[in-house]
Amino acid sequence: MQGTAFRFFATATVFVVFGMAWGIHMSATGDHLHAPAHAHLNLLGWVTMALFGVYYHLVPSAGTSRLALIHYAVATLGVLLITPGIVMAIDGTGEALAKAGSVLSILSMLIFLWTVISTRSKTA
Length: 124
Ligand code: HEM
Ligand code: HEM
Fold this sequence. Notes:
Strand content: under 5%
Bound molecules: protoporphyrin IX containing FE
């Protein structure tokens, strides 16, 4: 597996290990208050990032550009901000982190949209 694809998969797997541990903790304590934060850690951090990794594995040339590195950084930072951001929003202690994480998350998807369109002729 090539650099960018591996980077996305490895990071996604780290996120889901934390996400699952959090889910088990919620189940064990019966406290589901922060379930939406757990949900988005898994959905943006695991599902979305792993899907990005699948594309970069299918189209290795897409992963060699500088944009691919920026895409990885933006997507990862998005998850790292939105997850505590949702916790804070639920707790009523501020929404700035959730907003910043949301903007980075949609930005990462727009970068991906551009990547898919611009590398369409290179797909298997
Ligand atoms: C060890 C694995 C996991 C455990 C023990 C776990 C546990 C939980 C618990 C206890 C809740 C709260 C349910 C509620 O209050 O209704 C929840 C919600 C949720 N989890 Fe997980 N989870 C796990 C993995 C995952 C994964 C891998 C994903 C996504 C790929 C995921 C997605 C969600 C979603 C979307 C919700 C919100 C559902 C709703 O709207 O209530 N979870 N999880
Ligand atoms: C910029 C990125 C995103 C933002 C800002 C966002 C925001 C939200 C918000 C505000 C809710 C309602 C939460 C509540 O009522 O407690 C929600 C629910 C949900 N979202 Fe997202 N979302 C994003 C990305 C995604 C993605 C990529 C997926 C799936 C791959 C997803 C799946 C879900 C699901 C399954 C729920 C219902 C479960 C829950 O209540 O936690 N979201 N989202």
